Amino acid sequence: MKENKKKEIEVPIWQKINLTIEEAAVYSNIGICKLNEISKKPNCPFVLYIGRKKLIKRKEFEQYIASIFEL
Question: Of 12, 18, 19, 51, most Cβ neighbours within 10 A?
Answer without folding.
Answer: 19
